[in-house]
Amino acid sequence: MLSSTFLRRAAAPVVRTGRSSFATGPASGGSISDDLLSKLGSLSTQALVDGLWVMGWPPSQIDGARPLHPSHRCAGRAVTLNFVPARPDIAADKPPGPESPEYEAFERCGPNDVLVMSSVGPWESVGGDIKFLRLRQLKIGGLVTDGSVRDTDEIINYGFPCFSYSTTARQGPAAMQPWECNGVISVSGVTVRPGDAIVGDQDGVVVVPARVAESVYNIAHGREVIEGIVKEELIKNPGPPGRFYPFMSGKIKVDSPLGKLLATRGITPENSNQFEGSADW
């Protein structure tokens, strides 16, 4: 039989002192150099998605963000802003005026940054003309949201790349309030951490986690080189693409038609990570 002393000790509440910093974890997942950011921006979003997929990472394309203008393309480090549904106490507690989280986020942005705004709904407005004038002044690298934007013509005239779900005439404050700058956010179900690489083109927007950005670039760049060789070969010798394509990075066999074609261009397992047994991720 258990002693009464043991029972009293077992029933005693656990007293916690202080708060573990690991309870929330760090917001940023790493840093990306200007050189690597430029190299990521030189690739297509398709190649970057493929690189992350090969590595086994979750979906990385923000499906709810489309370019506001056909010329829009961006590559920058994420500065994040999270909106929450409107509630009277939220509106009362949010820092007012220039201290608002959205303006804090704005001031963190520059030419190599992309402001990523998590909306509470696709048709809710994250901002428009007067607010985004400041982003133009800061020469921001881009704006991405799964919500909508207002004053479309003015935003296009501002010249910075903008990717949104759509456009709207609605006002945002009635539906949501900006609540946190540079935290971890979810945009169309895709996680974005401050400092992640955000790359956008006509096919959409991709989030490249900072921690694996170098590996993603190496895989994606290797794929684009090979796809260029395959296309060149098919133009020269027309026929079904199936002889060479599609292919899996890290799985190309040396004695396959694609492997033999690449050998004629000097691409082998000794200098490429795209072959079976040469994957370095």
TrEMBL record:
Its cofactor is Mg(2+). SUPFAM superfamilies: RraA-like. Substrate binds at R150. Pfam families: RraA-like (PF03737). Keywords: Magnesium, Metal-binding. It comes from the Eukaryota. Mg(2+) binds at D151. The keyword Magnesium applies. InterPro entries: RraA/RraA-like (IPR005493), RraA/RraA-like_sf (IPR036704). CDD domains: RraA_family. Gene3D superfamilies: Ribonuclease E inhibitor RraA/RraA-like (3.50.30.40). This is RraA-like protein.
